[in-house]
Design goal:
With 411 residues, the chain is of the alpha+beta class. The protein has 11 helices and 7 strands. Helix content is 46%, strand content 11%.
Length: 411
C-alpha cells in the first residue's frame, strides 16, 4: 500500500481547492454556516451548471465524451477535495456514477453520443431497474420480460426499490429476453424511457415519511431496439460492471461521513454523561477503529487499481468492503440511539435539521415528524441490503475466494 500521492496529483489538489473557494457561496467554509431555504433552492439550481462549466462532472471520462480525461489519481484527489469541502459533486448519481461508466465500457458509439451529453449537463435523470419483489439477492431469477416487436422492445413486469423512479427520465433495466436460456444467460440491459404510457411509478412510504424508493410497473412499455447495452442476452455481465462502479466509487472518501457522525456522537455522549459508561466508551472506540480500517482499506484498493495487480487478497477485500462498512454503520446508528436514549424519539433529537451526515435535508413528510439523526438510523438498516446484501457478499468470499462448496439450493 502506497500512502504518498505523486507531486502532480498534489498540484491538482491546489487547483481544485482554489476553484471551490471561488465558486462556493460566501461563508461556506465558516463555522456554523447555514443557508435559508430560498438560498438552498437557488444553490441547488445553480450549482450543477457551475460544475458543468468547470468540467468537474464526470471529469475522469475521456475528453472526446466531454470529460477532462483525468488520471486515476487526479480523479481520487478531485473526490477527496469535494468531500473535504462538503460540496455536491454530481449532477445525477445514477447517471454519472453508474450508467455513464457502463456506457463508456459497453455502449455503442451511437449510444454514447445519445446519452452521455445529457448526463454531463445534468439534463437527464436516471433510475436503476434491477430488484423485483421475488428477485433481490437472487437477481438472476428476475421475471420482467422484453419481447422484440419490429424495432421496439415491449416490456412487461415489475421492479421494486427503484430509487428516484418518480423523477427519472430513463431507467437502466434488467429484463429477460430469452426465457429458454439459463437464467444468467437470458438477460438484457435496456435503457427504457420512463415518461410514457405503460410505466406506472408508486412511491413506497418509509417509516420516516419519505418515499424516494418506488415500485415501477411496466405494462407493454416500449424501448427502442438499439437501446440494449452490451448486446442482447449479455445483461448479466453488463449489470455486474454497474454494480462494481456502485461499490467502488468512494474508496478513499466514504469514511469521511462516518468520521463526522462519530464526532457528533462523541459530543453528545460528553454532553449528557453517557461517556462515563464503559460500554458506551468501548463501542465508540470500536466505531472509530473501524472507520480507520475503512480508510486504510480504501488506500489499499487505490494502490491495487493503480498498480493493476490483483491477488486473492485484493479480490477478497473488494467483496468484503461493502459488507464491512454497511454492518459497521448499522451498529453505529444503534449506538447513536443508545447515546440519545429516550430523547432519540423526539423530533429535535440530535443536531439541527440537515446537519446529521447521511440524513440529507429535513425529511419530515405528511405529518410524520422525524429528526435527521433518526432518519439516518432508519436508512442504515437498508445499507446492508442495497448494492449486494451482506449474505451475498459472504457467499462471494466463501465460494470465489476461499473455494468453499456452493450454498445448497432449495429443493
Amino acid at each position: 500500500m502506497d500512502l504518498t500521492y505523486p507531486a502532480d496529483a498534489e498540484e491538482f489538489r491546489t487547483e481544485i481547492r482554489s476553484w471551490l473557494e471561488e465558486h462556493l457561496p460566501d461563508g461556506w467554509f465558516d463555522d456554523g454556516f447555514e443557508m435559508t431555504d430560498e438560498e438552498r433552492r437557488q444553490f441547488n439550481v445553480e450549482w450543477p451548471q457551475k460544475l458543468f462549466e468547470g468540467g468537474w462532472i464526470c471529469a475522469t471520462w475521456p475528453s472526446e465524451y466531454g470529460g477532462k480525461g483525468l488520471t486515476t489519481m487526479q480523479g481520487v484527489v478531485l473526490a477527496e477535495e469535494f468531500a473535504r469541502a462538503k460540496a455536491p459533486m454530481r449532477g445525477d448519481f445514477f447517471g454519472d456514477t453508474l450508467v455513464g461508466p457502463t456506457l463508456l465500457q459497453w455502449g455503442t458509439e451511437e449510444q454514447k453520443q445519445e446519452f452521455l451529453p445529457g448526463i454531463l449537463k445534468g439534463q437527464t435523470s436516471w433510475c436503476q431497474g434491477f430488484s423485483e419483489p421475488n428477485s433481490g439477492s437472487d437477481l438472476a431469477s428476475l421475471k420482467t420480460t422484453a419481447v422484440l416487436d419490429g424495432d421496439q422492445w415491449v416490456i412487461n413486469g415489475q421492479k421494486v426499490w427503484t430509487t428516484q423512479g418518480h423523477h427519472a427520465d430513463y431507467c437502466f433495466l434488467l429484463t429477460r429476453t430469452d426465457p429458454d436460456a439459463p437464467k444468467h444467460a437470458g438477460i438484457s440491459y435496456i435503457l427504457v424511457p420512463m415518461k410514457q404510457e405503460g410505466v406506472e411509478v408508486r412511491g413506497i412510504t418509509q417509516p420516516d415519511g419519505t418515499a424516494e424508493f418506488c415500485e415501477v410497473f411496466f405494462t407493454d412499455a416500449k424501448a427502442p431496439k438499439d437501446n440494449v447495452v452490451g448486446g442482447v442476452n449479455n445483461g448479466w455481465k453488463v449489470a455486474n460492471s454497474t454494480l462494481a462502479f456502485e461499490r467502488g466509487q468512494s474508496a478513499t472518501t466514504g469514511y469521511r461521513r462516518f468520521e463526522e457522525e462519530y464526532r457528533l456522537m462523541l459530543e453528545a455522549a460528553r454532553a449528557n454523561g453517557k461517556i462515563d459508561d464503559p460500554g458506551i466508551r468501548q463501542r465508540l472506540m470500536q466505531y472509530y477503529s473501524k472507520i480507520q480500517i475503512l480508510r486504510i482499506n480504501g488506500l489499499r484498493n487505490l494502490t491495487t487499481a493503480i498498480s493493476g495487480k490483483k491477488d486473492m487478497g485484493t479480490i477478497a477485500l473488494g467483496a468484503t468492503n461493502k459488507m464491512f462498512w454497511s454492518e459497521m454503520h448499522k451498529a453505529a446508528m444503534e449506538l447513536a440511539i443508545e447515546i440519545w436514549g429516550a430523547d432519540s424519539m423526539l423530533v429535535d433529537a440530535g443536531p439541527e435539521s440537515g446537519s446529521w451526515p447521511g440524513a440529507g435535508r429535513d425529511k419530515r413528510r405528511d405529518g410524520y415528524p422525524v429528526s435527521p439523526m433518526m432518519s439516518a438510523f432508519f436508512f442504515s438498516r437498508s445499507e446492508t441490503i442495497w448494492g449486494g446484501t451482506s449474505q451475498i457478499q459472504r457467499n462471494i468470499v466463501g465460494e470465489r475466494v476461499l473455494g468453499l462448496p456452493k450454498e445448497p439450493k432449495p429443493a
